[in-house]
Design a protein that fits this description.
This protein is mainly α. Helix content is 71%, strand content 0%. 8% of the residues are buried.
Length: 86
């Protein structure tokens, strides 16, 4: 799959608007899981969880791990936008 330059620029603008940390935070809340639980699942401190919540972007391997832990496909948000640009 090759995106046109216009589609790529539109996608990049979209990703700049997505605040993935906030989406993770909202998903955690919807699933009624605590920050303490999430930190335990990630094997990190609560401080690091709050740092994740503040991120506008996140490494794909970290996002995959978080997606598995929360049983939610965060990649779908980006995939749908890519499909809309074709």
């Amino acid at each position: 799959m090759v995106l046109s330059l216009t589609a790529l620029l539109t996608f990049l603008k979209f990703t700049a608007l997505v605040h993935i940390g906030e989406l993770i935070k909202q998903t955690l809340k919807q699933k009624r899981k605590s920050v303490v639980w999430f930190a335990g699942e990630l094997s990190c401190s609560r401080t690091n969880v709050y740092k994740i919540f503040s991120k506008h972007s996140i490494d794909s391997s970290d996002l995959l791990r978080i997606s598995r832990i929360l049983d939610f496909d965060f990649f779908e948000i980006y995939s749908k936008e890519l499909k809309n640009q074709q």
